[in-house]
Design a protein that fits this description.
By secondary structure, this protein is mainly α. It is built from 4 helices and no strands.
Length: 71
């Protein structure tokens, strides 16, 4: 799988699909994990998406501080 091979865009795209439940079981937690993997590798879109999840407390503990850091 591309995510296991370190493809950052694949991590971000799969994170979107999982977060939204597009063709897979919906999971904010798994989406946050995938966004974190991509964000830590410099994907700006993943950083923004992860920040939004922290702001809303979806799949992660709500944290305005982490929301600001990732956004």
């Amino acid at each position: 799988m591309a995510t296991e091979q370190g493809h950052v865009s694949a991590m971000f795209n799969l994170g979107n699909m999982v977060r939204d439940g597009q063709g897979v079981v919906q999971s904010f937690k798994k989406g946050a994990e995938l966004f974190t993997m991509a964000a830590e590798r410099g994907n700006v879109q993943a950083m923004t998406s992860l920040g939004a999840l922290y702001f809303q407390g979806q799949g992660v503990d709500q944290s305005n501080e982490l929301a600001r850091e990732w956004r």
